[in-house]
Write a structure and sequence with these properties.
Length: 452
């Protein structure tokens, strides 16, 4: 970062503020887009009005606002956006003539996070667990996104009822129903987008508020607003039932991205969002390392060495699929098809979205599908372990567990490897954050030079 006389200041005001992750989002975006700005946390002890007016007078270019000032700050602004006024809180201040205008990017952020996972909200039915401030905002976002019905389950029934009464009056065309937690079986059997909006799951030892697989099996997709820990009991349950899900880190990411776009008039691409997500995940959870490369490039041995050196977990995706299917990859290819295996592989990769502090060794063909590259890219730092044809042939000859390499002779094997490597190499190269030539290195030496 090169700070000079033209560097713009952006930041976040709150109290406390020292644990904020927002600088990771915005400073990474400034770097990616070549914007001369710096994002800093600003501790405002108590007088929010003096602070906002002082920051405005000092030319601070844009601000985020966090607890406890999301409501109080509104009286210090020149205007408040209509949606923020409806929510009753602002989290983003944009400079305008005479001061700042207030916006709320939390719910647009959640919506964009969900859409980025190709989940549609329009005409769907939803279940919200919780009836606090977040649940109310989620309910409003769902209504505005065109859902048909929302069921709100809460420990204190009257709070759920209050949301239904207020929003039901303004949006009579959407079916809204309040229920106490124990009445969850009154929700009709159907498919729902499910939101976990309580604080249960934040503390170690927290359990599920509703402990019934039949209930969670109704989820087509689930979202837990909590992002720390990465895997709450809600997320763990959805994982165990094979339900696609995300935690609140993507909401944090996209509320920041939308604020950044408003300040600088830019559009953040999916690729940039993935890079920022990887940085956030690394900072918060310790991040992941994804090893890609051709068969025999040493992904498993390097993965084991890396995980041991850095005290990380290790997953070999091929072994994981074999374990899950209860049969070898050869058998899957023989009795099903390569397409069947690739579909399994894509599903397993998509299910890894909540992984942290893990080294992931991928199958040689995993990078061929765009959806896999997108999902693996989000997981963390991608390293291509590059090996030349001779090294690979030496490593894989005589190995009969690799269906795509079965050959009559070493010469035929060399031809196959060479052809496949030529077609796959551009994918590996373009996709990776780091390329390592492995031919003359041991697994431990490779593990040492991985920049993460
Ligand atoms: P809130 O207004 O305090 O509401 C808390 C909710 O949790 C209420 O529904 C409350 O039920 C329920 N709850 C608390 N303890 C419970 C217990 N022991 N048993 C059953 N229910 C319990 O909080 P909020 O602002 O809505 O936030 C809710 C969660 O969303 C928080 O964990 C927060 O971290 C998360 N969040 C994440 C983001 C993000 O960027 N990802 C943004 C905002 C919030 P009662 O009504 O019965 O008390």
């Amino acid at each position: 970062m090169n700070i000079d006389g033209k560097t713009k200041i952006i930041g976040v005001i709150g109290n406390p503020i020292e644990h904020t992750l927002s600088p990771v989002i915005h400073n990474t975006l400034c770097g990616l887009m070549g914007i001369n700005a710096v994002y800093v946390p600003i501790h405002v002890e108590s007088d929010i009005d003096v602070a906002v007016k002082g920051l405005s007078a000092s030319g601070v270019y844009g601000l985020n606002v966090t607890v406890p000032y999301k409501q109080d700050v509104m009286k210090s602004l020149v205007s408040v956006d209509e949606e923020a006024a409806e929510i009753g809180a602002v989290n983003t201040l944009v400079r305008s003539a005479g001061g700042y205008k207030g916006y709320n990017t939390d719910m647009p952020g959640l919506k964009r996070a969900i859409e980025s996972r190709h989940v549609k909200l329009e005409c769907k039915k939803a279940i919200i667990i919780g009836a606090g401030g977040a649940a109310r905002a989620v309910c409003l976002m769902l209504i505005k996104s065109g859902v048909k019905a929302v069921y709100i389950l809460n420990r204190s029934f009257e709070k759920a009822e209050d949301i239904v009464a207020k929003l039901g009056k303004d949006y009579p065309s959407v079916e809204l129903k309040a229920l106490s937690l124990s009445k969850y079986k009154e929700i009709p059997e159907d498919k729902y987008i499910m939101f976990q909006c309580t604080s249960i799951g934040l503390k170690e030892g927290d359990g599920l508020l509703i402990d019934d697989d039949d209930f969670y099996s109704m989820a087509e997709y689930g979202y837990d607003l909590i992002y720390n820990p990465a895997v709450t009991p809600f997320i763990a349950k959805l994982n165990s039932l094979g339900v696609k899900n995300d935690n609140g880190l993507t909401m944090l990411l996209y509320q920041g991205i939308i604020a950044f776009e408003m300040w600088f008039g830019v559009r953040v691409t999916h690729e940039m969002a993935d890079t920022v997500y990887a940085e956030l995940s690394k900072k918060l959870y310790g991040g992941n390392i994804v090893l890609v490369g051709y068969m025999g490039s040493g992904k498993t041995s390097v993965g084991n060495a890396l995980a041991k050196d850095r005290n990380m977990d290790f997953i070999d995706l091929d072994e994981y699929i074999v374990e899950k299917e209860g049969r070898s990859i050869n058998d899957i290819f023989t009795y099903e098809s390569e397409e069947y295996f690739r579909n399994l592989e894509s599903k397993v990769i998509a299910d890894l979205s909540n992984l942290s502090n893990t080294v992931i060794s991928t199958g040689g063909g995993a990078v061929l599908r765009k959806e896999n590259r997108d999902n693996l890219g989000k997981l963390g730092h991608v390293v291509y372990l590059k090996a030349d044809v001779d090294t690979i042939v030496e490593r894989v000859k005589g190995d009969d567990t690799r269906p795509l390499l079965q050959s009559e002779s070493e010469e035929e094997l060399r031809k196959r490897v060479s052809m496949m490597l030529d077609s796959r190499n551009p994918y590996y190269e373009l996709f990776a954050d780091q390329v390592i030539y492995t031919d003359r290195l041991t697994p431990s030496e490779i593990a040492e030079i991985i920049e993460f």
